[in-house]
Amino acid sequence: MAQIYDFKLARPDGSELNLADNKGKVMLIVNTATGCGFTPQYEPLEALYKELHESGLEIIDIPCNQFGGQAPGSDDEIHEFCTLNYNTTFPQLKKSDVNGENELPLYTFLKSQKGFEGFGDFPDREKFEEFVAMGNPDFRNNANIKWNFTKFVVDREGNVVARFEPTADMGEVAAFVKSLI
């Protein structure tokens, strides 16, 4: 049976990030996009990284262009956007698919560990669900990633312990991650 530490991810420079190098750390794995309404989540993600990286937090940022074409740039352009606009210091990986026939095997694993449980309550939830349904009519009944900035949390023992949809309050995400540090 696969475990989180079995996966290796491509960096934009062609080297690999071996998740086994993160044994004993808490990982927050997020599919990102630079042109999304959720893009401002880079700010609290960076704040969390700065606060907790020395205590064992790793953020695994995987840009993805599968949702509304909202990450159209090259890996270098995406990195430049994030560092200039959000001062990000956590590493970004190569832009990749998180759903479908070309999805990263890591995402096949993550979705098998934590499926979709709903978007929760937030203003305009119904409109957002209608929007998501246009591209994924059966979204409630599958584990697929629904949109940019879906977050998976992995504890220090390598267990996938939470999935936060992009609509989750970033304060709740931060509080959960801090509880594991």
TrEMBL record:
<dbReference type="GO" id="GO:0034599">
    <property type="term" value="P:cellular response to oxidative stress"/>
</dbReference>
<dbReference type="GO" id="GO:0004601">
    <property type="term" value="F:peroxidase activity"/>
</dbReference>
<dbReference type="InterPro" id="IPR036249">
    <property type="entry name" value="Thioredoxin-like_sf"/>
</dbReference>
<keyword id="KW-0575">Peroxidase</keyword>
<dbReference type="InterPro" id="IPR029759">
    <property type="entry name" value="GPX_AS"/>
</dbReference>
<dbReference type="InterPro" id="IPR000889">
    <property type="entry name" value="Glutathione_peroxidase"/>
</dbReference>
<feature type="active site">
    <location>
        <position position="36"/>
    </location>
</feature>
<dbReference type="Pfam" id="PF00255">
    <property type="entry name" value="GSHPx"/>
</dbReference>
<comment type="similarity">
    <text>Belongs to the glutathione peroxidase family.</text>
</comment>
<keyword id="KW-0560">Oxidoreductase</keyword>
<protein>
    <recommendedName>
        <fullName>Glutathione peroxidase</fullName>
    </recommendedName>
</protein>
